[in-house]
Amino acid sequence: MRDFELFDEESTSTLFRDIIMLALAGFVTLVMLLLPHINPKAVAEESSKSPGNLTVELRWPDDLNADVDLWVEAPGDVPVGYSNKGGQIFNLLRDDLGDTADLTGLNYEFTYSRGVPEGEYAVNVHLYRNPTGVYPIPTTVVVSLKKPGFKSAKQILVSKLDLTHQGEESTVFRFNLDQKANLVAGSVHNLPKKLRNRKS
Q1: Which structural domain, as residue segments, surrounds residue 155?
Q2: Confidence category of residue 199, pLDDT binned at 50, 70, 90
Q3: CA–centroid distance for 171 within its chain
C-alpha cells in the first residue's frame, strides 16, 4: 500500500510539472508570434527616413593613400572637422585617414546636421597628408538636404575639386538657406573662408 501511495505522489508531481512546462511553452510561442505585429507601421516609417537634415559627403579615389578632411560650418556655430568632430548643428560621422586603420577600402568622409537653421553654410576640403606624392587628388563633394517633415533627402549641390599640394584648404561651397530650408537663389559661391583651426 505504501508503494502505491509513493507512486501516486510521483505521478502527480510529474503531471503538474508537465502542465506548467506546456503552459510556459504556449505562452512563449504566443509572445513570439505577436512580436512582429506590435506597431509595425512605426517601424516601417522609421526605416524609410534618411538621417540628418543636411548631409555633406566627400569622396576621393579609393586607391590613393591620402588623408583628405572635410570641414563644415553652420550659421552661428563652430567649424566641424577632424579636430572638432561636433558642434551644435553638425557632427563629423566619419574621419577617413586614407589606408590607415581602414577596413572598408573606401575614401570618404561625411557630416550630418541636426536641423537647418537659416543663414550661411560653408564647406571646405583640406589635404592633411599625402605620403604617395601623387597629384592632383580629385575630390567630389555632395550636399543633400532633407527638409523638416520630408522623409528623404535631395541633392542640392555637387562639385569636383582637385587638390594640388599638402596643407591646401579650399572652400568648395558657401550658400544660404532661408527659414523654410530652401536654398537661396544666387547665394552659392566659393569665396575662400578658412575653417580649419578656427574656434569661432
Answers
A1: 50-177
A2: low
A3: 23
